[in-house]
Amino acid sequence: MAVAGAVDVVDNIVPFYTDASMKTLKSMPEFKAVFIAKPKPMHEMIMRECNDAAMSKPYAEFCADVNSLRGMQ
Questions:
Q1: Do residues 71 and 47 touch, judged by C-beta distance below 8 A?
Q2: Class of residue 15 by CB neighbours under 10 A (exposed 0-12, middle 13-18, buried 19+)
Q3: How open is the CA angle 46-60-16, to the nearest 5 degrees?
Q4: Which of 4, 7, 10, 17 is the most buried (most CB within 10 A)?
Q5: pLDDT in tens for each of the 73 residues of the chain?
Q6: Residues 29, 31, 36, 37, CA torsion sign
């Protein structure tokens, strides 16, 4: 049985998108602001999941932006 991760919970990632259909990510400055506003444990969970090839595959574009924020925590 698969366990849902932080990126699988819509409420956790919908703020990173410009629309509720989650088709378009926010600009990098807005994306970064949303990420920074999340609690540090959530940063770590999202980073860990985006670093896992299997978990990140359905969220490739989202995870690419998350991974670009590495080191800024």
A1: no
A2: middle
A3: 55
A4: 7
A5: 345 688 888 889 999 999 988 999 999 999 999 999 999 999 999 999 999 988 888 899 999 999 999 876 5
A6: positive
